[in-house]
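User: Predict the structure for this protein chain, please.
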Amino acid sequence: MRFTSSSLSLVLLAACASASSGGRAPLPAPPEAPTLFAPGIVSSAAPEFAITFTPDLRTLYFNRATADRSSLTIMESRWTGTAWSAPRVASFSGIHRDVDPFVSSDGRRVYFSSSRPGGVGAAGNLDTWFVERTSAGWGDPRNAGRPFNTDSNDVFVSETRDGTTIVGSNRAGAARIFASRRRADSWEEPQALSAGAPGDGNALISPSGRFLVHVRTTPSGGADLWVACRTADGWSASTPLQGGVNSTFADFAPALSPDERLLFFTSERPGVAPAVPAGTRPPGDIYAIGTAAAGIDCA
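Assistant: Here is the predicted structure, written as structure tokens:
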């Protein structure tokens, strides 16, 4: 499905408000259609994906890559009171291939996936790492260790408020979505979720744990976003998101505002950059839409 971008630019989600006196970025009324997020600041002509916000909405993190994706860096931007600041490399990134940042609900940790030395798996594999907030900023990156990490790729972490941690892994062969419980600095043995299907990935669990948004490969080899709802018996069957979220281009890397009213995602549809020649991978930008408009109804 193709879509027409709204004129709302979300340059900080500033459309609805005068700047708050406390420095907290104000959230707008949830857009009814996919809307470019912070064009020219966060969304640029370079590839961007995987956005995440601190609970106070004063800081965001996202990935920016080179056109060939050989360099993958986590960037940081801060709310100035009127707009998002020019992104800078996060203190814990910039040397290695680091992807998919996720800020915990309490704001004390940033999880991310990295192939940096010191991981559990073979050289080049992606492990889950995290940094913790200190009085001086973010501490040194720490590997989540076994059993959360394995000899396989373990990527795209998200977490509920009560410590249920979700990760994508091919530890069992095909890529699957796994869940674990965090206990301080260690995790229980991750178990495959009944949500989703083999091959699904980029799974984001909502802070409340009520729903899970994930990527499913399309028959043509692309990527679409689907949602599963938590039920008394486990998880519902996944259904594709609505409201123009999915397109004929790759749509992936879901994220949520802390209040679960806004869905953010990455799409390689034409956005800041125009359409590219056939056979060339588009750069990708970050979009926002209301969760209700996207068809997420998991009360």
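The chain has one domain: 35-290.
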